[in-house]
Amino acid sequence: MKIKKLFIANWKMNHGIAETLKFITQLQRMVLPTEKTEVVLCPPFTSLYTVSVALDGSEVSWGAQNCSEEEKGAFTGEVSAVFLAELACRYVIIGHSERRQHFQESDQLIAKKIERVLQCHMTPVLCVGETERQRSENQTFAILKKQLLEILNSIIKSKPENLVIAYEPIWAIGTGRTATAEQAQEVHAFIRAFLAEKLGHDFSNNVRLVYGGSVHAKNVKSLVNQPDINGVLVGSASLDADSLNEILHQMSD
Ligand code: PGA
């Protein structure tokens, strides 16, 4: 198991270039506990170049929130993983529930995107998670299995060690209703056991499993103290540099 915890900031459609620069200037004045935590900023595409220049040589890395499943060509408005690699992105978030919900991304499409990210030597952050209704109907594990199966089939030969899976219960995203540490641990343990069953223990022990959904400075510690929670994916609480810094210190204590 990798030792450093992972902190991924998902800015969604927030922070254009001016705000990104302001954020980074604030960040550069802070002492981030990067010896204990790997920090990744995922700004909108249009801020990536700015981030890549401003953070070049620093301990903080960056990633994108999505990419095309295609390599290049006549796909108006799409962004190739090749271009993201060119911007020195280390991570690409794939299959976020907002993309599944608003852009009809299917498990098949998500599996193709994951392969594309891996081909470009970046780390995919695959997002999975159930709705409130699915949880209340005891469907959580069945939904997760379905979301994972397609992807596992496509990586069964390569078994990429760098895969990250983010468990993000949809009912906890942007709602202020975080899963309890026990609820999150239960699901993470299930995911790890499922990965072991399909691709073996060596693989499953190397995959980093992060939790996302209303994470903030007050709840992060109990989450990352769980044995199968290797980090967090943070949306709104990562938009402010002070809040991000506080979360990092809480999780690194
Ligand atoms: P949130 O978003 O932290 O604002 O709930 C998390 C996410 O959607 O990745």
The average pLDDT score comes to 96
H-E order: EHEHEHEHHEHHEHHEHEH
| Low-pLDDT regions | none
Listed once per kind, the bound small molecules are:
2-phosphoglycolic acid
Q: First CA to last CA: what distance? A: 19 Å
Shape: globular
Count, helices: 11
Instruction: Please identify the structural class as seen in this structure.
Output: alpha/beta
Task: Give the spatial strand order of the biggest sheet.
Answer: 1-2-3-4-5-6-7-8
**Any idea what the radius of gyration is?**
17 Å
Key terms for this structure?
alpha/beta, eight-stranded parallel β-barrel, 11 helices, binds 2-phosphoglycolic acid
Structural summary, described in words:
The relative contact order is 0.15. The model has no long low-confidence stretch (mean pLDDT 96). It contains eleven helices and eight strands. By secondary structure, it is an alpha/beta fold. α10 links the parallel β7 and β8 (231-234). Bound molecules: 2-phosphoglycolic acid. Residues 10, 168, 173-174, 212-215, 233-237 line the site of 2-phosphoglycolic acid.
